[in-house]
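Morning F.,

Quick status update on the modeling queue. The single chain you submitted on Monday has been processed. Sequence for confirmation:
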Amino acid sequence: MKWSEIAIHTTNEAVEPVSNILHEAGASGVVIEDPLELVKERENVYGEIYQLDPDDYPDEGVIVKAYLPVNSFLGEAVEEIKEAINNLHMLDIDLGKNAVTISEVNEEEWATAWKKYYNPVKISERFTIVPTWENYTPVSSDELIIELDPGMAFGTGTHPTTVMCIQALERTVQKGDSVVDVGTGSGILSIASALLDAGKVTALDLDKVAVQSAKLNVKLNKVQDRVSVSQGNLLDGVAEQADVVVSNILAEIIMSFTEDVAKIVKPGGRFISSGIIQPKKKDVKDAIIQAGFTIEETLQMEDWVAFIARRNEE
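Structure tokens below.
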């Protein structure tokens, strides 16, 4: 079977929305080639070992790749992808070069080539993300392992916005807490919450592909007894209050529903928000404060920002 590789040369800011567009077009996963990976000094923080080839990365910007089957619908799918990406301008998202290239690959090459980008990665004090095909032995007794198959879609869990969310959850979630994960994607934040001994986790996503992916990953990590995954638009239909609400989505969307978050988070509870590019940091911070929260901590990684906010007591 022939597959078409579609590569979009864009910016770090646009990675998440572009990846989502590719998933909605039928891609089962994405490869992200970000030159910043070559200069990260992770080994001094958590002891990871990386073997990266500079030839795999662009000189500037980020390349997001996905694979679609070569069939009679391919041309139409590619045009729809281009149109959807161009429409991101309306959300004030910098698309950079916004160059789209198409090439053909054999199924055997496609099925294995992307795996070279994905190895076990320790992303916080306790969490390590491990691909399902790797044999990995924890290096400490309190290490928490999240198994993911990125072929299921929605990335590898190592994007800065996801990493900061997991680090924030690690500092925030207490045993027995109720957690709502808005825009769950792969379900990784819900899985992390359950592994941190949350008593009940509600994972929500508008995209049915994300819901399917999250359900599979939840079962893979054996936390389905505490994590429920369902399709929903932000917090629509959620009535029960939670100790923690976490959301790793676009800054504009975070700002649009902070008032709804304030109704769900218990007084004294936490709102963890990520997916915020540096230029939008102040706008998101102001919206969160105006909704009745106090910013407790600001996390920053590369060009991205995340907030841990506490709901003010009534």
